[in-house]
Amino acid sequence: MEIRKNKYLNWSYKIIFILIGLLALKVFEFNILFRIIHWFWKIPVVGTEELIGTISTTLILMPFLFIVMKQRIRLEGAEEKFKALSYYDPLTGLTNRRYFEEKLTDSLISLGKENKMGVVIFLDFDGFKQVNDNYGHEVGDLLLKEMGNRLLDCLRKEDTISRYAGDEFLLFLPNTDKPAVLNIVKRIFEGINKPFTINKIQIETSISIGLAFFPENGLDALTLIRNADLAMYKAKSLGKNTYYMFNQGDDEAKSC
Description:
Shape: elongated
Oligomer: single chain
Strand content: 15-25%
């Protein structure tokens, strides 16, 4: 309530100052401006009143234009802040699930028109719960940030990485093929398997990765994400710290 009251109070002051300015302008309009313009340009009396009226009208509108512009700037700043909150993960600074799904949907349309291949990679860190249990959530959060940075170093500029949820990350690689994807997967394993040092604590990590290719394993974003998720769990069942490429038999086995 106090914030709202101060807001209204500030606007009241602005309105008062504007009204005072308008009153002062009207008082001096014909006494000063009229005489200065008539003396300087030798403009006849006839028509001078209209000129002064135009000038005064312009001056009257300027404060309102200034206020509108200022409010517009504030609104645009608020929109940018809202977008940042809507599309970015506050912990890692990476994009979030909502951004990934929208970006993937748009990208798949382009890939479909160009008959090109892409891949969704679902990545989950093995034993992350034990890190939180043994060292605390602060260390776990810092570890996630470092993991995100290492993943970024393994990708190309055109690739997309998002923190999906918890210790799960989603990657999308457009305009690629299976050999190129497997090379990037190899780099990811090499990068993540190197020990992390967080608050002077050395932590060794491993990951399980699931792959779903477009258009082979799905034509839309949600199907590809779901199938990559299934493949990731298959990788975990194979002993973790490995990858698995989705195939249709996995989906059929789960539905049985």
